[in-house]
Predict the structure of Glucosamine-6-phosphate deaminase.
Amino acid sequence: MRWIEVDNYEQMSEQAAEVVINLVKEKPEAVIGLATGGTPAGTYKRLVEDYKQNTTSYENIKTVNLDEYVGLEKNSDQSYTYYMDKHLFDHINLKRKNIHLPKAETPPYEQDAKDYEQLIKDLGGVDLQVLGIGENGHIGFNEPGTPFSSKTGVVELDPSTRDANARYFENKDDVPTHAISMGISTIMKSRKIILLASGAKKAPILYNLFKTEVTEDIPASILKEHPDVTIIADSEALALLKEKEGSVNR
């Protein structure tokens, strides 16, 4: 596990975008796993800027998203389908047939999850997975206590996760209670992973991730056993770790 400290959110976004762009150029038919939320939005902005300036082509790239809320219509402005269109897909030359998110609008959700797991296998697996990290250590929507052996499935969201996501909804009660998420074992099959973290709210979990042994109480801790993981985090997110441990660049 490699740790990279950057000064701020903008630098984090630039470094992450550079990783994606390099892969797209090196492997034009790559499968890229994408995350949502506030953390990767800046990365997608940089990708769009690069596409407009340098015409980096995504024509044969395939994408798979980590997760999607259960029960939201795709055109809902809180759905991750809407988020991805708004921040990235509508602005680059990615073919619609190569864009994949879990189907989670209507039952049977469990079958949708199984189908998504199979889809990822059929695509040949994920070349690069972009991750964020929850304040409780979740990756995707895999909450603390999720078995490391988990595959893509229907998951119940932790109250802290719903609280964190409430800012995207009119009120907390509107936040879905369940989602379809790639499983931890699914994520771990990715050939390369970058995990992004920004802001003071992420400082405690990054410190715990650094210090703690691999445990299902901190889902992200399993990443220590992956052969190619890079954490890109800004100074605020690394403040507690640096205070207690010193430099994290390694």
Summary: Residues 2-245 form a domain with the Rossmann fold fold (CATH 3.40.50.1360). The two ends are 9 Å apart (CA to CA). The longest helix spans residues 9-26.
